[in-house]
Amino acid sequence: MIRNNNTSLTASVISRHILLSIEDDLGLKVKNILSFVKENLKVDVSYKKAWYARRKAIELVYGSWEANFAELPQYLDALAFRPSIEAFNMCRPVICVDGTHLRGEYKGKLLVAVSQDANNKILPIAYAIVDEETISSWSWFMEQLRYNVALDRHPICVISDRHNGIIYTMTHFDYWEEPLAYHRFCLRHVWSNLITHFKSLHLKKLCWTMGRTRQLRKWRMFRRELRNIFPDA
Q1: What is the pLDDT of residue 206?
Q2: pLDDT at 183 over 90
Q3: Which of 46, 87, 153, 167 has its CA 20 to 30 A from that of 124?
């Protein structure tokens, strides 16, 4: 039996014992590693050592952050979007754009554009990795989107949140201005902003129903109800 204070049980040694567990569950928690080491190797190790063991095991299975990031350009070259771009011509003339944080050692932002096909399935048509969401990065992304994906689609509707970079692009570049394109805000973001200021269950349901209706007659009916009940909304 290995004594509890055995320093020869390094993070590298532990990592090889948990390889199969990491392969089965990339989200394996450190506390589970501590329990595994205690039960199977009869050793108490620190949280820090178990954390490093988990990181080493992930690198053994999937490679290091540095190696994966270095392969990113090659991956992007191999990931051809031409079929998606061609399929977009058969989709509704609606594009949703958004940005999100990259999680991991290498920080950045992922900008993405998607559409929806006739089966109401999400179709990715463009994405880019940038340092930050800025007016400059969004202007560049939207320019590439227009000229490489949506050049012949007009009029077209762009749905987004209220990020300044997107709003600037939609109001300062003629190829994204009306009547070639129309900019509308994402219902979920509008809904979220509304319920932040108005705490009403009925208002939440009414806003969502109003935003999802596809008939102008019903939309006007819901709008009248909204104004009658919540004139300040």
Answers
A1: 83
A2: yes
A3: 167
